[in-house]
Design brief:
By secondary structure, the protein is of the alpha+beta class. About 35% of the residues lie in helices and about 25% in strands. Helix 1 packs antiparallel against helix 2 and helix 3 runs antiparallel to helix 4.
């Protein structure tokens, strides 16, 4: 199974600089399974150092998750495969989100608010873990079921299941969307949302988006694009670059083959 990654990022019309940041990497520790890591952060517009917060969060998460995963291999070198310890992948993602949050707090200008959303995906062979803080969504296109679904769990609960929950629960879930890294020195577990897919397949796609990009495409549009003709990276670049937006627009597209 191979994963091809493409990204697109463009400054918003009314912004002095692009406050989004994307980063991705593929590793194969000790000749075990391939591990693909992708992170998208959207610095908080109107807050001090939004761009710095996004860069700090993305790079801190990447450094932490790689170090954490390698640590598991170093402790268990003989006949060890991370796929047999999937809980360690999930706990490593949780740890790395918290590490990124601390890093964002440390670079904040004293007396001024600063922060960023984060949307991250870790794929070990065919096992996927998505994590999210804030309103930058992650989508998963399942080629077997021909469905495009949100895998940023907070938005699944707050939006897609709104008809099935009480108004009080809906309001509480919507509040989760307003959280961000750098908001609190210590981030609680209930703010960090985790979603897993036990087995991804050939022809599946994963898409991370800043809200500037997701505001342009809803889930129906995304399914049509993901299943339509043409190289997906070119299709998305054309859609996003050809659309006016005051906000920064960024995506990471991961195609399984």
């Amino acid at each position: 199974m191979e994963i091809t990654i493409n990204s697109f990022s463009e400054k918003g019309m009314n912004h002095n600089e692009n406050e989004d940041h994307v980063i991705y990497m593929q590793i194969r520790p000790y000749n075990d399974v391939n591990i693909t890591i992708a992170v998208l952060c959207d610095g908080m517009g109107g807050m001090a150092n939004g761009r710095l917060s996004a860069i700090t969060a993305a790079e801190s998460f990447m450094s932490a998750i790689v170090g954490r995963l390698i640590h598991h291999y170093d402790k268990n070198k003989h006949n060890f495969s991370i796929l047999n310890y999937r809980d360690r992948i999930i706990s490593s993602v949780m740890y790395s989100i918290k590490y990124a949050n601390t890093a964002v707090c440390e670079v904040a200008t004293p007396g001024f608010g600063s922060g960023t959303t984060i949307s991250a995906v870790v794929i070990a062979d065919d096992f996927l873990v998505a994590s999210n803080v804030g309103d930058s969504p992650a989508y998963y296109y399942d080629s077997d079921s021909d469905k495009c679904m949100l895998i940023s769990q907070i938005q699944n609960r707050a939006v897609e299941e709104a008809d099935d929950i009480s108004s009080e629960e809906y309001d509480e879930n919507k509040k989760i969307l307003t959280h961000y890294l750098g908001e609190y020195r210590e981030i609680s577990d209930n703010i960090i949302q985790i979603y897993t897919v036990e087995k991804i397949h050939k022809n599946d796609c994963i898409l991370l988006m800043s809200d500037g990009a997701s505001d342009i495409c809803d889930s129906t549009d995304l399914k049509n694009v993901l299943t339509g003709p043409g190289p997906l990276n070119e299709v998305f670049s054309k859609i996003l670059s050809g659309t006016y937006s005051e906000d920064d627009k960024s995506i990471i597209l991961m195609e399984i083959s």
